Each structure stands twice: as structure tokens, then as C-alpha cells.
Amino acid sequence: xxxxxxxxxxxxxxxxxxxxxxxxxxxxxxxxxxxxxxxxxxxxxxxxxxxxxxxxxxxxxxxxxxxxxxxxxxxxxxxxxxxxxxxxxxxxxxxxxxxxxxxxxxxxxxxxxxxxxxxxxxxxxxxxxxxxxxxxxxxxxxxxxxx
Length: 147
Hints:
The chain is an alpha+beta fold. The protein has 2 domains: 5-58, Arc Repressor Mutant, subunit A, CATH 1.10.10; 71-142, 2-Layer Sandwich (Ribosomal Protein S8, Chain: A, domain 1). The chain is built from 5 helices and 9 strands. A 4-stranded antiparallel beta sheet has the order 6-9-8-7, covered by helices on one side. Strands 1-3-2 form a 3-stranded antiparallel beta sheet. Strands 4-5 form a two-stranded antiparallel sheet. The chain is elongated, with a radius of gyration of 20 Å. The chain starts with a strand and ends in a 5-residue tail after the last helix.
């Protein structure tokens, strides 16, 4: 199997970092790289070891096509007291990171105390988004605020 090499720019894009940050990791020895001419090249294995998992941004191919499914959802909850809003926000912000299918999951919350209103924005895979909705429903049911 041939080894895949990434440029510093490709690694920066896949990890959502600045190119200078990646170069710093290489210079500090945190990210192993090979210097070819005036450029660094990072192997697939080195990047996988650095990130602790599969290479972010590697497309998944199905019958020659790259398939990606992602959900973008906004949940608005009325009549939420500050304690419940804080509990939900704390629980949901802990979800940040990678989901079950190793794709990023993004969750943000906004609470308006005057209106007792909570807004939750969720971006991620279908299964991860569904799990977040289940968690929200569970907390609301525990608080007697089931929809």
C-alpha cells in the first residue's frame, strides 16, 4: 500500500489550523514530517498518530462518489428557567468534538433570561444530531418541561 503525503497547507486545512501553527508543530517535533526540498511533507500515518484517529477530511467514497450527510438544526425552547438552561447548555457544550462517525459535531446555545427562551444550534451527522435531540428531550422531561 502506498503512503499518502500531505503538504503543510493540506494538514492545516484538514485540522482547521493556520499554516504557521502546523509548521510550528513540525519544527517542535510534535508532528513528524519529511523535508523535501524547501517543503515539509507529512505522512498519513504521522497525521493519524498526531490526531489520534483517522485523518480528518479524508473523503469516504461510495461507487466512485463522495457522499456526505449532515444535519443543521435549530431548536427553540420556551419557558425555560435559568437553572435548566444552564444544565442544558453545560451538557450540550460537552458534546463538542467528534461524533460516532468521526465527523465534527458543533453545538451552540443562547439563553435569553428576559424571555425565558433557549436556542440550540446543532450541526453534525444524522445519528449524532438525533442523539443530541434525545438528550434535550430527556433533560426537559426530568424538569417537567416535556414538549
